[in-house]
Amino acid sequence: MTHSDAFYHPDAFYHPDGDLLVATPLTRGPWHIDHQHGGPPAALLARAIEVLAPPALWHPARFTLDFLRPVPVTRPLRAVAELTRRNRGLMVMPAHDPLVAARLRRALGDRTRTRARA
Question: Among 3, 9, 71, 98, which has the highest number of CB atoms less than 10 A from its own CB?
């Protein structure tokens, strides 16, 4: 059993391999056996955006995702998000996969500050 097998669950969309995520057959889409359905890779990017802001102070306002080409099942993924703009009430966080020179997908997440309750 390898280190990554210790975290593998048969119903998971991905399993970790170091700092990469390897797709399981459950990510396959209906259009082509070698391409992933859009939901699992979208969730990876959404999670990368989500961890940048403390949920007690910020909540999601918008998540936009563009698939620029199919995401292959056979290629490991890594989702990275960065904070590009922040002011008192808004955070803008684009996310992408840095392993691919020609981007397969790009996402943009906006979060707004949670108002203090009286």
Answer: 71
